[in-house]
Amino acid sequence: MQQKSPIVVIMGTGAGKSMAFMLPASCSTGVTIVIVPLTSLRGNLKDRCDEVGIECVEWESRKPHEWASVILVTPESAVSDGFGNFINRQRAMGRLDRIVIDECHVVLDSTGGWRTRMLALRDLVKAETQLVYLTATMRPKEEGEFIRLMGLPPKEMCQWFRGVTTRKNVEYQVQMYNREEEDEVLSKLVEEKKRQYPMPGQIIVYCDMVEKAVRFATMLKCVCYHRQVGSGSEKSELVRQLTEGRQQVFTATNALGLGVDAPTIRVVIHVGVVRKLRDYAQESGRAGRDGLKSEAIILRGVAPRGKNGVAPGGKSCVDLPLWGRKCACPWGRGAEHETPNPINSQQRKKEEATSSRARLPPGASSVAVA
């Protein structure tokens, strides 16, 4: 972390990216600004800084803290006039050490109308300080787009560090089930994993909708986390129940998907369709952060069999979100084939239109991903 800029760090989940700013901050009398996209992650980072004696505060525009070592701020607040004035004051006093954008890959999703103010983070280059970008999920082919969106110089002029992002201790699999039996299948799976990984082992069930997360939490009698679950302090308390190992099972939306450091999560379950590979990499990366054997399971519901043995709509294994890996069709004749990338919906539609209709499995089955 010498005074070079910009620095882009791509390392696997749980590999210690936060040390890139926590360690320098612990040795400095200046201020490090950390831009964090999610409330759950901000609270978790603050707890981790407090544990090691780093003075850390979350930004409040009404009473800005001028002398903390680490300031945590949302992307939207970071580009406000009030925070811009704060940066100018810190720079004038010679206290501005660096600006860190944590989970910086989120900007890649901000071009379609979601959190578009994040694109204004490119103006931070005007702050004339060290800029550090941290993420675990940026594919090499996305680097050019990231550089363009952030207004960075060409890659060869940046300090670019790419580490290993694979997680060999996490076993990935897809389990098929009858969609009409979703509650029963999930309940049995969670109970099985609770026995297999007793406390302090933990389980997170990710859902694509708040309503589903709340319903499953009621059914499983567990904690539920989503964006509207409560105030900032209430959300922080729920995250602590996870990171401190006080509860075994949680249901959640992607509001709990980035960066939260809970080392004893043994199983991550996704119910339904996984829409973005980046989100799945982050959420499944909550498992096994301590390096021990863990599991990431996608529960993929299929429609019940019709009279002719074919599901309505002719669903086949191209629906499995295996992202181009080989799979052995569990209800076909054992032939292996490349599964399509679900990001390319047009390609998927063409393949579905030309493929023959496959028979559904007689019962729940699973396809493991190497």
UniProtKB/TrEMBL annotation:
Its EC number is 5.6.2.4. The keyword Magnesium does not apply. GO terms for biological process: double-strand break repair via homologous recombination. InterPro entries: DEAD/DEAH_box_helicase_dom, Helicase_ATP-bd, Helicase_C-like, P-loop_NTPase. The keyword Methyltransferase does not apply. PANTHER family: DNA HELICASE RECQ FAMILY MEMBER, RECQ HELICASE, PUTATIVE (AFU_ORTHOLOGUE AFUA_6G14720)-RELATED. This is DNA 3'-5' helicase.
